[in-house]
Amino acid sequence: MAMIKIRRLGLIGAIAIGLILRFWDLELKPLWMDEVITAIFSLGKNYHDLPLDVVVNLQDIPKIFTFQPGVSCGEITQNLTNQSTHPPLFFCGMYRWLGWIGISSDDWVMKLRSLPALFGVGAIVAIYAVNYLAFSRISGIVAALFMAVSPFAVYLSQEARHYTLPMFLITLSLWGLMQIQQDISQERVRFKVWFFWTLVNIIGFYTHYFFILDFIAEIFTLSLLIYRSKYQNSSFIRKIILYFGLSIITIIICFLPWLLVTWNHAQRSETSWLNSPGIFAPFYQTLLNLVLMVIALPVENQPLIITIVCGLLMLVFAVWLGVKLFPRYQQLWKQDKTHGATFTLFMFTACVMLQCLAIAYLSGKDITAIPRYSFVYYPSCCALLAAGLSEIPPLKSQNFQQIAILLIVGVLSSIFVVTNFVFQKPFQPEQVARNMNSAPSLPVMLAVTYDSYQDIALGLSFALALEQIRNHTSHSDGFIAVSRSPDVSNVWKKLSQLPVNVTSPLNLWIVAPGLRRRDYPQQLNLSAQTSCQIDPQHHYRIGIPYQLYQCYFSEQS
């Protein structure tokens, strides 16, 4: 009885730690481009609702992100169909969630990120269920603890994006897969298990397109499991194949209404930003993604000595963990009690990874270079990690020490995530805002040029970060998104025609994705009576270039 209570406390402790790490300073980091996109569609709006080609007071930028009541899921789906590249379920759910909890200008960022954080906690419970079923209750608790403190899982949970929901669904699907694996070994078929597995996969398809990688991996794994059972009772094999085939057909039929949209989304320019892979890059990037699941120390934008030391520490830790785990996986594979679950998880993980490598090499889009995309195989990796450290040998003091080391390293790494030292936001809106605020006493005008909706979202992320720094500093601060159509000369023309009254020096920052440094003009006009000179000392590039112009009011006779 005492042991049961301890085990229950272990799961409760994992959930509590997961909640604390995921909701700790949830609003601290500024929204980046993809999170702004989430906000636009989840609030019931689309890009046509945004103020484009007009000057907006910087203090009014947060007012753009207000909840639009009375919007149906069908309308959100239509917005995503025309203006985005994502399936609709997550965004419809976010809209209902935000409408239910209510948001204000003071807490909207935290509440926007709160639902993904909750799904991240849900995944902790789900991974407990997977390992409890596949191995033991202790293994389930260890898996839950590992996921609770995993820097990768904390990072995804603090993103206002659709990653933790599919991660949660993948984990549930793995639970169904493990149920089927055990049923096959016991020569039984349960309708409720197949129904659950089918339903989770249908929901997953409408949550994230990468869910198809897990679906294919599960088909591959189940096919192997059925093949390995081909010399068992023939009537059982026929029955299991019938359930398997009907489940696959049902999932495909349920996704057919969205298939044409999926094809159109795949052709959009927003999906072409990934670079082609190097010869070996996808392999070492995949290994790095595995390491980041358990340890993440500050190496981004740090002094060289800190980068080197932290990088070496991560390497040493990864080698130590690999040395400890490899012989244990061999034992898990060899033991009759654990072979079936180990085989299933390994085959699933290997198939997903191979698909990621195939996409990188065959399509020229290296998804392995983006750590967040490894959510597709993260749950199975977490399950295997916990099994390796808790099942072989039978749990004893040495295992407890190694588990404790991983948990301590995980907590430390997660603190670095929360405080923005690791997994820093792409395009670094916080750093961009600090650079743009180099002269706090002067008014600032932020002008963003756009060719696509993503450029607009990027500009809004910078504007939000800048507004947060300059809050109440100047009522003359402004923001404008200017179309580059038909070419960049249109930007300079529109800026010269703006109805902006400038009676004092002003700093004009121009963000121009795709523009080279030499393409910025040496001089331009902001409204009819304001001349702006380029400041060559303040040109920056963080994925995209942005340039400072110093503007002065000039009297006209």
Question: What features would you describe in this structure?
Answer:
With 557 residues, this protein is of the alpha/beta class. Helix content is 59%, strand content 8%. It has 20 helices and seven strands. Strands 1-3-2-4-7-6-5 form a seven-stranded mixed β-sheet, with helices on both faces. Strand 2, helix 19 and strand 3 form a beta-alpha-beta unit. The model has no long low-confidence stretch (mean pLDDT 91).
Report on the biggest sheet: 7 strands, mixed
By DSSP, the count of extended strands is: 7
Strand order of the largest sheet: 1-3-2-4-7-6-5
**Could you give the distance between the termini?**
92 Å
Low-pLDDT ranges: none
Principal-axis shape equals: elongated
Keywords:
alpha/beta; seven-stranded mixed β-sheet; 20 helices
Write a brief caption for the model.
With about 550 residues, this protein is of the alpha/beta class. Helices cover about 60% and strands about 10% of the residues.
Topology:
Blueprint: H1 2-23, H2 33-42, E1 56-57, H3 73-83, H4 89-101, H5 108-134, H6 137-149, H7 151-157, H8 164-185, H9 191-205, H10 211-228, H11 234-255, H12 259-267, H13 281-291, H14 304-334, H15 336-363, H16 378-390, H17 397-418, H18 429-436, E2 444-450, H19 453-469, E3 478-483, H20 489-496, E4 506-511, E5 523-525, E6 530-541, E7 545-553
Parallel strand pairs: 2-3, 2-4
Antiparallel strand pairs: 1-3, 4-7, 5-6, 6-7
Helix pairs in contact: 1-5, 1-6, 2-19, 5-6, 5-7, 5-8, 5-16, 6-16, 6-17, 7-17, 8-9, 8-10, 8-15, 9-11, 10-15, 14-15, 14-16, 15-16, 18-19
